[in-house]
Amino acid sequence: MSAAVPAAVSTVDTSWLDAIQWDAAGLTPVIAQEASSGKVLMFAWMNREALAQTVTTGEAVYWSRSRARLWHKGEESGHTQRVLDIRTDCDSDVLLLSIEQTGGMACHTGRHSCFFQRLTGGVSDGRWESVEPVLKAPAEIYQHKP
Fold it and tell me: Is residue 110 part of a domain?
């Protein structure tokens, strides 16, 4: 799954992309963190093209493994992510995006964060409980217009 860098970017020096430790599938994990609160809103994947498009557009573009294509965050919901800062960890194998979340919802379930389930109990009685409210029903967010 080796994706080409967009034409607009391919004419400039993109050697900075080579510094990232891409996995065997050409992906790297990405954490999207809300700049204003420091809260982790979601986890996703990027390939070279997604990262290049993110840098070019200033909005988060990910690689959707389930769709097997690039995914501009908010393309259906309108809840885009404006990227304020991009960092990599000490091993260059994880990216951290500092973002401004449009519409207040990062999760497709209509919640602010994708990390809305908390483990309660112990090993023998553990269970996942939803601890963040649904801000907008997914059916309202993803209304398909003719």
Answer: yes
